[in-house]
Amino acid sequence: MRRRKKTVLGNPTFKFLGLFFAYVLLAGFLIRLDWVDRRLMHPYTVLITRISGAILNAMGILVETLGTTIRHNSFAVDIRRGCDGVVATAVLVSACLAYPLRWKARVLGALSGYALIFVLNLIRVMGLFYVGLKGSSRTFEFFHIYVSQFAVIALAMVFWIYWVGREKTAVL
């Protein structure tokens, strides 16, 4: 009996990586289209702003929201592209969809991952607003650039690793 040589394309790891990068590139292309930005991305960012503002107000931090801006008497933030959690969501959803499991599991993983990042991003926006309100501009910049971005990415990775482990156990 002859053994078949595994080719690079037949390797499940390379297949996953190929699909993952293809999905990430597709998502990156789509979110940069002008009409997607106007009709989906901007309204999505406004939604994040409104929900964050409503929660901050419910917590007793009285703010006003206008478009993508959250404003207090002494401080304001404008939630821009890159601060909306969309890139982290695209990466996590791409990883879930590319992983070789049943499609139902992939879609549920992608939806769960999206929900997680949405909530994490709300926490991130509100936390950064609070840090900006109470701290210095240097403290805000440090938390904005280093801490909060790392936290969202790290927690998304932890979710994906947990999801893969849980799903692989369920399949076996």
Short synopsis of the structure:
The chain has 172 residues and is mainly alpha-helical. The chain is 73% helix and 6% strand.
Strand content: 5-15%
Gyration radius from CA atoms, angstroms = 20 Å
| Silhouette | elongated
Main β-sheet, spatial strand arrangement: 1-2-3
Mean pLDDT: 91
Distance between the termini: 28 Å
Fraction of residues in H or I helices: over 70%
Structural class from helices and strands? mainly alpha
Count of separate DSSP helical elements: 5
Order of helices and strands: HHEEEHHH
Low-confidence stretches: none
The biggest beta sheet reads: 3 strands, antiparallel
Q: How many DSSP E strands?
A: 3
Protein model, in words:
Helix content is 73%, strand content 6%. It has five helices and three strands, in the order ααβββααα. A three-stranded antiparallel beta sheet has the order 1-2-3, covered by helices on one side. Strand 2 and strand 3 (75-78) form a beta hairpin. Helix 1 (12-31) packs antiparallel against helix 3 (86-98), helix 2 crosses helix 4 and helix 3 runs parallel beside helix 5 (137-171). The longest helix has 35 residues, at 137-171. The relative contact order is 0.11.
Secondary structure topology:
Layout (H helix, E strand, L loop, with lengths): L11 H20 L2 H25 L5 E3 L2 E4 L2 E4 L7 H13 L4 H32 L2 H35 L1
Antiparallel strand pairs: 1-2, 2-3
